[in-house]
Amino acid sequence: xxxxxxxxxxxxxxxxxxxxxxxxxxAPIARGGEQLQxxxxxxxATPCATLFGWDGKLYTAAANKPRLDYSDGLVDAAGNKLSxxxxxxxxxxxxxxxxxxxxxxxxxxxGGGVTAAKDQTGLDGIASSCSRITANGAxxxxxxxxxxxxxxxxxxxxxxxLVGTGNIDMTMDNGATWTTVLTGAAGxxxxxxxxxxxxxxxxxxxxxxVTNADSVAVDFVQNExxxxxSSPIAVTTVxxxxxxxxxxxxxxxxxxxxxxxxxxxRPAHADAAGTIGSNxxxxxxxxxxxxxxxxANLGAxxxxxxxxxxxxxxxxxxAIPAGxxxxxxxxxxxxxxxxxxxxxxxxxxxxxxSLASGFAAFNAQTMLVGSYAAGQELFGGLIDLMVVGGxxxxxxxxxxxxx
Length: 403
What we know:
This protein is an all-beta fold.
């Protein structure tokens, strides 16, 4: 086929800066086109959603504003940094004073004891915005007890070695389990480290500095529900909830043969251990019945799934490939008469899967991006999403994406 033309693109959502807009509907005005407006929402009670800028510093986004984020470490062929549009579900960080370990919420008398000072330049590039902890003796601990019902918890923190080479350990069960998260000599940058998920009530979180006089900088201690980390949330006196990101785009087209192209940063949940308990959504054409959606299927295996929902459902599962970013090309054919789909993630298309019964119209003329329903958000960074009329190859989509 010929190269993908602007008239072939029905919807595009992209973080690529040369377009200057978050979404672009390229259908003719008579069918909706640019007269239709997307709706983005993230109803934070107070601004708390964060993003890493091009300069590597952490910033806080205003409520109901999308986040163009550079945290995924992606570059183009010329070595230029690539941003993504960050989509995450709601999370609550329950660690109080998670940047200020001098606060009394942190008990620093365990083992040989720990001294804390709030004198370090943090992820935001601001002087004295985060903490340093130093062991006063062997196995000094710095711990915070949290009152909370039982749930699966995930813990992360940004650490930077200042002095020494001994082990730095982290816990969320009051030291019943210690996991070494940092070794080696002093470094110039923070590293985000994590420990395995635990299901427990009333976590006690914190650190053990094994060697006397060793010291580390600490920023954004985070304990949240789930089995993988999300973006940093700053907390002081009370736990803070970051609301879910939501993007809805009007669909100026009906049921037809389509190609769905997705380029996205490799999400943390692609490599997380265990069953995730949700299917992080990439997009949905329509809602509920008579819907087409793409999502990650995170049960015992790790798959990318295209799901066609009508009287008889059809799900096409493809193993999540290695590498970062991920590129996916789904073809949808004959949706009105039954429907078939196939997928290419870089190794060529497989066979079409078939649907026994089709549908004549989407149940809603809206497209969800970065989720397919509340509670099923991507928890990752979207680089480019294109809805193309007709059946196109991955190579053709890549060429259009990079044009």
